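**Discrete fold encoding**
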Amino acid sequence: MTLYKIFKYLAIAIGVIAAYFVIRVMVAGEDAIKTSGDLQASIVSPFLYVAYIVLALTIVLVLVFVIKELFTGHPKNTFIAIGAFVAIILIAYLVTDGQPTPLRDGGTLSANATHWVSAGLVVFYIMAILAIGAMLMTGVKKITTR
């Protein structure tokens, strides 16, 4: 059996299990689940465990295939991409600043945490602009080569 078939059947099994829990949530009703701890434990908790399992499988598979490709493919391109991403994070961190911010619960978010949140938003904006630019350039390239 090929790896593709194994993953296909695994995805189908996870989909069926998730569909079962979604149907249980729909049958029980939102209000009943909110008010009953027993329903939360019997319906929502297993649904969350399925989500945790899927997340863990996804992370493991991504790491395995990234490491495999790193050693079998062209590591130079991978390191260039990682370096570019680290450079974007560094630039975003340097252009932002942080100030202590009061929270709704009465606590305070530290200046360092605010700085990292701001840097994360700037990284997101830069990456979004680069992705949109890459899509536009690909579209223009396709139009001009036809």
